[in-house]
Amino acid sequence: MTAAPTxxxxxxxLEPFPxxxxxxxxxxxxxxxxxxxxxxxxxxxxxxxxxxxxSIAEHRYIELATIxxxxxxxxxxxxxxxxxxxxxxxxxxxxxxFLATDRGPIIATxxxxxxxxxxxxxxxxxxxxxxxxxxxxxxxxxxxxxxxxATGATIAVIIADSDGRADRRGATVxxxxxxxxxxxxVTEHHGKRQEETFTDLIAAAAGIILGQRGRGAPIAILRGxxxxxxxxxxxxxxxxxx
Length: 242
Hints:
Elements: E1 10-13, H1 26-37, E2 46-50, H2 51-57, E3 61-63, H3 71-80, H4 84-92, E4 94-99, E5 106-110, E6 115-117, E7 122-124, E8 128-130, H5 136-151, E9 156-165, E10 168-179, E11 184-189, E12 192-197, H6 198-207, E13 219-223
Parallel strand pairs: 2-9
Antiparallel strand pairs: 1-13, 2-13, 3-8, 4-5, 5-6, 7-8, 9-10, 11-12
């Protein structure tokens, strides 16, 4: 079925947003900021959440001092300049990897099935690291259900993460988890049928708004995008299944 067209949409950050602490209820934090800013969720809204906020709320922190690097991790650390314990975490959370250049970055196929720079692991200062959410689709569904219950709005949730590409410098934003929205959009024009990674398109659009490197804006709301509501999740479109 050809997707309904979208001719325009709007997007905004939910801010100011409090700094997420380990164990925080992310849905409650979002609901509190909605109330404090006089913002209402409406049917069809897409709430895009930075994956790091989910990882923090879900206690996905690892102390690097607890990691013992293997010889291979030491070799890759010497090549890329990354701390050996961090490289070991990348290897531990991957089923395959390659270096984009002789000096990196490390492009890894995560055990969850995603291909990500550094297996999606985010350094936390000099002593720790944040792993991805354990099951991003489940996290998205849990958050969607809580927000719908609290607001009465039928919405979708996408968990997004910044990620680089092996063929170019810089990073974009992709979807790791989704609830209430189909991950693929099918378009047809003059007999040509095209599948698009729809949730990635939305995540990238939200990435223009989401905070990067210190800007505390982990939540973006996109409004006016036509989509089909499903709970397939991102796992449904991965070539490498978890």
